[in-house]
């Protein structure tokens, strides 16, 4: 899967979080990796000052590191989740 660094693709990734148990928030902060993941409360916080490309990379990293139940997602988002799990980021 090729990753397109557009606002539309960012919205698709945000939709996955909207349908999952995790809450996605954009906050300011000096996170070393660009994001902070609070597993106990199921909150993912991404640096709001990041570019669209940076936000997309952070969201993909988060999606790969957490457990999201594909059954709780719509078919479209479930397919996107499967594609993302098989994709590697090339920096």
Tell me what the structure shows.
This protein has about 90 residues and is of the alpha+beta class. The protein has one domain. About 40% of the residues lie in helices and about 15% in strands. It is built from three helices and three strands. Strands 1-3-2 form a three-stranded mixed sheet. The longest helix has 14 residues. The radius of gyration is 12 Å and the shape is globular. The protein starts with 6 loop residues before the first helix and ends in a 6-residue tail after the last helix.
How many helices? The count is: 3
The CA-CA distance between the termini, in Å, is: 15 Å
Indicate the structural class: alpha+beta
Unreliable residue stretches? none
Averaged pLDDT: 87
| Share in β-strands | 15-25%
> Largest beta sheet, briefly?
3 strands, mixed
């Amino acid at each position: 899967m090729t990753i397109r660094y557009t606002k539309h693709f960012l919205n698709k990734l945000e939709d996955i979080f909207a349908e999952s148990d995790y809450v996605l928030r954009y906050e300011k902060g000096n996170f070393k990796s660009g994001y902070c993941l609070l597993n106990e409360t199921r909150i993912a916080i991404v640096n709001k000052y990041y570019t669209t490309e940076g936000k997309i990379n952070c969201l993909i990293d988060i999606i790969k590191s957490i457990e999201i139940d594909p059954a709780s997602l719509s078919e479209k988002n479930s397919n996107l989740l499967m594609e993302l799990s098989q994709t590697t980021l090339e920096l």
